[in-house]
């Protein structure tokens, strides 16, 4: 009760659901409660700063820049994973982790244009909805501040926009003999041969394979390229 009096029920709920899955015992930690409180304050500060500048117009998803596409992809990745975590596995701790990851992206997102701010609006609405089963009081207040009508408990769970998850390009890790040597960016539609050629041409790869014979190139689609040489 003392913790609820000091931090509020939402903070205590967030800590308990994040610290341990519901089917496992929880080790209480005052510092963990403080960490949950700091996170909710971060959410509140970002939302307050956003709302104070005035609510934006409607997001035009057909004219997003590459940076804006990356932010929107993070929003819908969080929705997709949290939906699985909560809806199928009842793992609130991993769903909370998804929201924390999304918050890291939103805090760094640009806010210069109305399009930027409309994207941040979508992100903050998503944060409120994903947190609503866990921290209902602050989520309801955020929902109202973001200009939404009605109670958040009556709002639909956010839906994934699959088109937002499509990437025009991919950043792949490049290894030489299992050791990280660089990164390459390739079109998402690049063939295995094109990925391999790009990896072989990487400056660091050339340096670390100089004088060696490349025996094999292992391409893990969407993740990495490992060049085996001796």
Briefly summarize what is shown:
The chain is α+β, with helices and mostly antiparallel strands and 230 residues long.
Return the string of H and E elements. Answer: HHHHHHHEEHHEE
CATH superfamily of the largest domain: Isoleucyl-tRNA Synthetase, Domain 1
Number of helices: 9
Number of domains: 2
**What is the topology, as strand order, of the major beta sheet?**
2-1-4-3
Count of β-strands: 4
Shape: globular
The value of Rg in angstroms is 22 Å
CATH architecture of the largest domain: Orthogonal Bundle
Reported for the largest beta sheet, the result is: 4 strands, mixed
Mean pLDDT: 92
CATH topology of the largest domain: Isoleucyl-tRNA Synthetase, Domain 1
**How far do the termini sit from each other?**
64 Å
Please state the structural category: alpha+beta
**Text of the CATH class of the largest domain:** Mainly Alpha
Low-pLDDT runs: none
Describe the model:
The protein has two domains: 2-165, Isoleucyl-tRNA Synthetase, Domain 1, CATH 1.10.730; 169-229, Ubiquitin-like (UB roll) (Roll), CATH 3.10.20.590. Helix 2 packs across helix 5 and helix 6 packs antiparallel against helix 7. It starts with a helix and ends with a strand. Strands 2-1-4-3 form a four-stranded mixed beta sheet. It has nine helices and four strands. The longest helix has 23 residues, at 30-52. The chain is an alpha+beta fold.
